[in-house]
Design goal:
The complex is a heterodimer.
Chain A lengths: L21 H29 L4 H10 L3 H13 L3 H12 L1 H7 L12 H6 L3 H9 L8 H26 L12 H18 L3 H16 L5 H21 L9
Helix pairs in contact in A: 1-3, 1-8, 1-9, 2-8, 3-4, 7-8, 7-9, 10-11
Chain B lengths: L2 H26 L7 H7 L2 H13 L12 H17 L2 H17 L2 H5 L5
Helix pairs in contact in B: 4-5
Classes of the chains: A mainly alpha, B mainly alpha.
Chain lengths: 251, 117
């Protein structure tokens, strides 16, 4: 199959070509992530400040590491005084799921030029979700559009984490439940993915892999393991379809 | 080793490890074609991963304890219904989040189901 025909996100009505400039369109696309990353970043900042670290580390970590779960775990490990090798292996394992994201972006990221290293660096769960579901406005530069989305998300994360670290517990806002905005974002993007591809099997595979992983793995590890299981199911499914014509006794 | 240096080395380590996981497929397939099998499942990866990210958001829900994830399930059902109906992403996401914050902050399901001892 040709990669070119895959051209994933065909929908996203927010992105209808219009008179607005590309930056504003990218900004609109990222608004849900703004509302997710600010409280989540603040939670990270609170945690870091609570562990006794200067807010400048929230800034440095969010600029150069830029990963949600990974940064939370890094603070936990810092507080525990872990070894470098532990930081390295745990981070690799936690973030290995990102390798799967790249697999489905090889084509989309080809020909984006010099922003490519940054796009790869900034590939968080949420940015991946936006990039695979949002269509580049007609006639617009793919590189610039992707870059704007990635940079904006990154800025939200940095802002949130510094804000959280600086304010610490001074602020007594009740943000309980606000990070659910990310779950709502995933609900919407999942529905849009369905409208774009009309394929049911990926969702069946995901539900099966997700529930299985919830049942047998601990919550922190379930995402990577469920992606691996789901991918194996997709592969097995493709193979079964392919082998349908010639009769054979596959186990 | 001073604290600052320790912190900076830790941050560098975690940053590098994170970047490696993101760059891996791009580096791996820089000079060779991805295998055909990968190309056939590639289009199915984003819908599957998004669905799994959604399930992952629910990983800490106590399904077997009262109120059995009622707030989460109710919100997701509402967002789904609203989105299928109106197809307005912002509307679906923000009314869903507002609804959820209301449900958990006021503990609506616990009160509504009146199972407080």
């Amino acid at each position: 199959m040709n990669l070119a025909i895959i051209g994933i996100g065909k929908v996203h009505h927010i992105m209808n070509p219009g008179s607005e400039n590309l930056f504003m369109k990218a900004f609109k696309t990222t608004i849900p992530v703004f509302f997710g990353y600010i409280p989540l970043g603040m939670a990270f900042g609170f945690l870091l400040a609570g562990a006794g670290f200067h807010w400048i580390y929230a800034l440095v970590m969010s600029i150069f590491i830029y990963t949600g779960a990974g940064q939370f775990i890094a603070v936990t490990l810092l507080a525990a005084g872990a070894q470098f090798i532990e930081f390295a292996t745990i981070t690799l394992l936690i973030n290995l799921r990102h390798s799967f994201y790249g697999l489905s972006l090889l084509e989309k990221f080809s020909g984006v030029g010099k922003v490519k290293p940054y796009l790869i660096f900034a590939l968080t769960d949420e940015t991946y979700a936006l990039l695979t579901t949002t269509q580049v406005p007609e006639g617009a530069s793919k590189a610039r559009f992707y870059f704007y989305i990635s940079v904006l998300d990154h800025l939200y994360w940095i802002t949130g984490s510094v804000l959280g670290a600086v304010l610490g517990s001074l602020l007594n806002l009740n943000l309980e439940g606000m990070t659910f905005v990310l779950a709502a974002l995933f609900v919407v993007l999942t529905i849009e993915q369905y409208y774009a591809s009309r394929a049911r099997f990926p969702f069946i595979a995901a539900i099966f892999a997700g529930i299985l992983s919830l049942l047998i793995f601990n919550p922190e590890n379930m995402l990577l393991l469920s992606i691996i299981i789901g991918t194996l199911i997709l592969i097995a499914h493709e193979k079964t379809i392919k082998d349908k014509a010639p009769p054979g006794d596959k186990q | 080793m001073s604290n600052t240096i320790y912190m900076l080395v830790v941050i560098g380590t975690v940053a590098l490890a994170t970047f490696i996981t993101r760059a891996l497929p791009f580096v791996f397939f820089i000079s060779r074609e991805p295998p055909e099998l990968l190309l056939t499942i590639e289009k199915n990866l984003p819908p599957m991963i998004l669905m799994l990210l959604l399930i992952y958001c629910l990983k800490d829900v106590q399904w077997l304890q009262f109120p059995y994830g009622a707030s989460e399930l109710f919100t997701i059902a509402s967002v789904t219904a609203l989105h299928v109906w109106k197809r307005n992403a912002m509307l679906s996401i923000f009314s869903g989040t507002g609804l959820y914050m209301l449900l958990v902050q006021l503990d609506i399901f616990s009160i509504a189901l009146e199972v407080y001892p």
